């Protein structure tokens, strides 16, 4: 069976798609690596179907399904990221620069908001000391082996214990000229980058 190419979306359809996604940012934060139950999948498909019906209300000749709309979003996101990388790569050149369209700027704003939310969640879990339940269950089965300075678990993982950590911290406090040089270089490059942006 041959796959049929879907019709191009016009500007109004894309605008409606992005407006709906801006109202439902949780739909974009979906992590495919996480196992979900059937109710989640039904809700997920239903939300994409609702976005498709909003687009179809515009009255253009092509009716889009929820899967079509989701695939359009994924394609739009991928193409916009590629274009942004190309623009950044060519920013050192002085001529022939491409620019992002208004639609692409909105796509990047959505992508960045998702990434910022994910980073905030990561930071919150680091600062609060909270960890996923699966990790907490694994930590219950940890055994400390004092003679070796390592920690062993039922899962066959050997990690440094507090004794090994103290030894590592002593090494960290000793100045390393290479690390200092690298950090100075990174600081200088960062300052130069900020000046270029201004």
Automatic annotation (TrEMBL):
<protein>
    <recommendedName>
        <fullName>Regulatory protein zeste</fullName>
    </recommendedName>
</protein>
<feature type="compositionally biased region" description="Basic and acidic residues">
    <location>
        <begin position="164"/>
        <end position="174"/>
    </location>
</feature>
<dbReference type="InterPro" id="IPR028002">
    <property type="entry name" value="Myb_DNA-bind_5"/>
</dbReference>
<comment type="function">
    <text>Involved in transvection phenomena (= synapsis-dependent gene expression), where the synaptic pairing of chromosomes carrying genes with which zeste interacts influences the expression of these genes. Zeste binds to DNA and stimulates transcription from a nearby promoter.</text>
</comment>
<feature type="region of interest" description="Disordered">
    <location>
        <begin position="161"/>
        <end position="182"/>
    </location>
</feature>
<comment type="subunit">
    <text>Self-associates forming complexes of several hundred monomers.</text>
</comment>
<dbReference type="Pfam" id="PF13873">
    <property type="entry name" value="Myb_DNA-bind_5"/>
</dbReference>
<feature type="domain" description="Myb/SANT-like DNA-binding">
    <location>
        <begin position="5"/>
        <end position="83"/>
    </location>
</feature>
